[in-house]
Amino acid sequence: ITMQPTSTWVTGDQIVLTVTDAAGTHPVNFTSAPVVTPASVPGTTPPTLTSAIAGNVLTITFTNGATANSAEPILVSSINYSTSAADGSGPVTVTPTYVGTGTAGGTISSASASNANIVGTPAIGLTAGSTPSVGAGLSNQSAGTVSFGFAGQNTGWFVGDQLTVRVAPNTGANCSGTLASPIQIGFASAPTVSATTVSGQTAPTFSAVGLTQSTACAGTSFYDQAIITLTNAGTIAGTAGLGSSQPVTITFSGIAYNVTAAVPVGNVSVTGLYNTVAAVGPSTTGAPSGPSNADVGKLSVTANNPAVGLTAGTINQPISNVVITEAQPGAVPTGLVCVILSGGTYNTTTAPTVTASGGGAVVGTPTVNGTNTTLQFNVSTASSSAAATYTVGNLNVNPPAGAGPVTAVVSDGGSGVNCGTTIASGLTLYNTFAVNRIFGQTADGTAAAELNAAFPSGCPASKNVVLATDQNFPDALSASYLASKLGTGVLLTPTNALASETVTALRLGGINHVYIVGGPLAVAQNVVAALAQEPVYTCGGVTPVTNPSTGAAVLTTVTQVFGQTQYDTAQTVAQYFGSTVGPGSFPGAYPTSVTGTSAYNTTAGLSGTLAPATGGATAILATGQTFPDAMAASGMSYAEQWPILLTQQASLAPQASAAITNLGIKQVVVMGGPIAISDTVVTQLSGMGVSVLRIAGTDYTNTAQLLAQFELSSNVLNWAAGHSYDILVARGDFFADALAGSALSGLTQSPIVLTFNPGTLGGGIPALFTTEHALAPPNEVSNITVLGGPIAVTPATVSQLLASIPG
Fold first, then answer.
1. What is the pTM of this model?
2. Of 377, 468, 580, 709, whose CB is crowded by the most CB atoms within 10 A?
């Protein structure tokens, strides 16, 4: 507000600012009192002022009188408005009025000004890109896109606004029906989201898609809402209305649904919400809140039951039947029915079969086309008196070389070479798994191969490596933490001789510094001396490194990190780098009751403590008497930089207690049940003010798989962030292969799971597959890497493993 030269003001005069919406019909209220500051102009006595607000009115009162020798500004700042739903969109109107006897009123412009713009809620339109058929009782079925269109001049969106796509059956709500057979349809996985805009329009940005439940279903888990949160603000440019080309469109694509068998026939109900307001959309026949992006058809198509996992690239492997079940007679018309593979081929060494049962349906003999990718049969008579079931069986396939699900498109009603109308797409027929092995001729050779796999360039950038004995486990249990801190992996050697495979790995990896975990009883002094005489090579092992001043060969530096016992060594390693222990925060993993089983403890031992308010520096505690529990946790130790401390069973080892205190550990993950680590130890830890979570199964294979769930879970370590994961498989009855594989596990965030022994799979790995597959959306294994050769994990055990994987 500027008063012009020679203008005067008198004590008690007032400047009144009135704020309304653009139309001037609704007040825009002050949220708090602004700051009113007169300028100090040379040669002029500045005005002294008080101010007060009342709704949409700011009153500024003069408490002195004077004359302006030059222009006298008054700044009104720190202005905050609150708007009401009745306010119209457009520029806020600020109108000044001078009340009093001074002449300043005549020098202040009476024209209104605007210092804010009210952005209205846009009109939101909802459209579906297509309405393909999905079958009742099927999972991961492709649906059409769903798009939100934004329109309306001087409207827009704000940070924190949300868009929701909510789905439900055609009739009734999700979770209706009996508990044994609830009616529900939900997202199989998170859709992808994109935005398109007209030229010159601000593009919205948004968070990753979150899947949530609008209704909690007892006894089951599903997600019927896909939600994004807008992370920027924007105003709609242009005046285009709904029904024309919207200035802003946000599209959810890649939508796939899981549909229970009880979902009724008809268009899926799709509701779009902008915050809590339903978007409007064109009507779609049969859709209760259209438009619909999927239609539950009059039949269902199932396959992969029981689920089949096949070895990639191995020919002539059997798969489960493909079954087409009608919900009403004649749902499958006369004509060709085709089952078209998305990968691999049919193997026709054994001829496929097809049968029709019920309703008088008649089918012909199935045939396979010349490229062996399409199986087809003819329905010569459609069902009429009752619904029919068509079963395609005796199927053998040649899987593709890559890992992943092989799907099919099923169609009916075709003629000639035309396969007709699609009735199912994305139907999983079987899964293929790439099974890799990393191994050498000895345990030392396997460790060298694992180091190379962890660092594909062949050389750790740090030029360090950790070395442990291959003949006993205690010292090696803590090596993973040391390797992680050093940015390298673990090699092995016999106690009394330096392994040739290890020497080769040092040379090829360009290693110049070897850290030995363990004292002279683990790695003898003659081995230490031999290492110290090894020349250093550049990465690749061809060129020796020389001293630039003398030209002499540079020799390997050797450092030993150890204590008198395995407990001392674990403490020494944990404290070697000071209090730079990795943090952890996973309150959702803690038990709701410390007694009884929990999500990660199926033993009778205490499950830990209740969830802490915050996380903090974290350590792993395992028994120092055996190796499987610490071995399974070695990859987590590497990835999260959580040291592995060791204890006796009955009471907390003083070395572990000291390390927890010295490092400021706030929470401890206890590996193994009460046979490995007693409840007394858990109680002692709790008494130290440390939060405790026990991860323990009925045997070491199940402890390893529960740890894998902990690592993969989205509310813990979230190693399966993309809803698929790789696993490393090692024998559980010997330590070398898994411990040396900790760097590969940690760097790739691939859990280490254990077989019972070389020839016995054990219960842990199948339990992991079953649990992860049951999640909604499911986490699915994609690649399997076996650590060790066929003597460590036999081919028969790998076959058992593949057979245990759900489709």
1. 0.60
2. 468
